[in-house]
Design goal:
8% of the residues lie in helices and 24% in strands. The chain starts with a strand and ends with a strand. Strands 13, 14, 15, 16, 17 and 18 form a six-stranded antiparallel sheet that branches. Strands 2, 3, 4, 5 and 6 form a five-stranded mixed sheet that branches. Strand 15 and strand 16 form a beta hairpin. The protein folds into three domains: 160 residues, Phosphatidylinositol 3-kinase Catalytic Subunit, Chain A, domain 1 (Ubiquitin-like (UB roll)); 96 residues, Roll (Ubiquitin-like (UB roll)), CATH 3.10.20; 80 residues, Roll (SH3 type barrels), CATH 2.30.30.40. The chain is mainly beta.
């Protein structure tokens, strides 16, 4: 299908918009072209995301969309680079540091922009020019948990969306269709949908699956994603889906994608202590859903309440998600009920 691209095709834009090179420089002092400076205030619109979905702004500008905000270009410290833009947005949004986040110049970008890239923030054309073409800031797991409270003013404007675009999907388990958590038609309860603006860039299938897991409250469960209900074409995690086009998988409710979950894990009938793996005699419980493992297979995903076995030794290991900078996170080496041994994010667990 034309809307699904191979991951090796990293074109900055696929919808006819200008190439990134026309709006940025290489960060080494030279400017590819001299954009015309806009007179008066130049707003830069942005959206915030975690790895599995959107984050609300503390300074929303619309009463019906709390996930988009804007800043004035004069507020960003010169020289105007990706790094200086990230630092200012993180500061006003209550995040401690901008080091562990990535910036995409638009929602259709496939790769994040380098920190030293010069950005024409005062030009009549360039990144974040309108609410329909915002930049996207993706915060890592640790940064999201360290967000400080910030005061904000209630928004007075209302975002007028001419047409909300959705990804439609039908949910199945091995024995048939099941009720979707995002159903919108009571007469068709297995059919769900999510707003495409809630899917964090890059629009790889892995990002879509993480968003679906959160929407369906099914973090930690494995599933396959099919292009349609026929199930003939499996969409792989490293495929790219171009959502901001007229045609993409799940664009209409008549032709939804298919989400097929594996069989839920069964609770062992014997006491867990009796089957503890060698060297992992302690038990920890996931205190909340965690999709970490969907972005790095050396880590566990978990559903709230899921039990793991561990040696109890707190350690720090590298977490390397797709299109994010690696980070060092506190964790335990743990084994789940299926026998998989991997790291689990310590702040989302407790001993039991």
């Amino acid at each position: 299908m034309a809307a699904v691209e191979a991951s090796s095709s990293h074109r900055p834009y696929t919808d006819g918009k200008p190439d990134r090179a026309a709006a940025t420089s290489d960060g080494r002092g030279g400017i590819d072209s001299m954009p015309e400076t806009k007179s008066g205030p130049r707003y830069i619109y942005y959206r915030l995301y975690a790895a599995d979905g959107p984050l609300e702004s503390v300074n929303p500008i619309y009463s019906n969309d709390h996930f988009i905000s804007r800043i004035l270009s004069k507020s960003v410290t010169p020289p105007h680079t990706a790094a200086s833009l990230k630092k200012y947005v993180c500061r006003i949004e209550g995040f401690e540091t901008a080091e562990k986040c990535t910036l995409f110049l638009s929602l259709v970008e496939k790769i994040p922009i380098a920190d030293d890239t010069r950005l024409p923030l005062r030009a009549k054309s360039g990144p974040g020019l309108s609410e329909l073409e915002p930049v996207a800031l993706i915060l890592d797991t640790q940064a999201c948990h360290k967000r400080s409270p910030a005061t904000s003013k209630p928004p007075f404007e209302k975002f007028i969306e001419t047409a909300i675009r959705y990804v439609h999907y039908r949910v199945y388990e091995e024995n048939g269709e099941v009720v979707s958590k995002t159903l919108f038609d009571e007469n068709d309860s297995s059919l769900g949908r999510i707003n495409i603006l809630s899917i964090p860039p890059p629009h790889a299938v892995a990002s879509l699956k993480a968003r679906l897991s959160k929407a369906e409250e099914a973090s930690g469960r494995n599933f396959q994603l099919f292009e349609d209900e026929g199930g003939e074409i499996i969409i792989e995690d490293d495929d790219i889906i171009t959502f901001l086009t007229d045609s993409y998988p799940g664009a209409s409710e008549e032709e939804p994608m298919a989400v097929v979950y594996s069989k839920p894990k069964e609770t062992p009938s014997q006491p867990l202590a009796a089957v503890s793996p060698l060297g992992c005699s302690k038990r920890i419980r996931a205190t909340e859903a965690d999709a970490t493992g969907q972005f790095d297979p050396t880590w566990h995903s978990a559903s709230a309440g899921e039990i793991f076995h561990t040696d109890g030794v707190l350690r720090k290991e590298t977490y390397q998600p797709i299109s994010f900078h690696p980070e060092i996170l506190p964790c335990y080496t743990a084994i789940n009920s299926s026998g998989k041994k991997a790291f689990i994010y310590a702040p989302r667990t407790r001993f039991c």
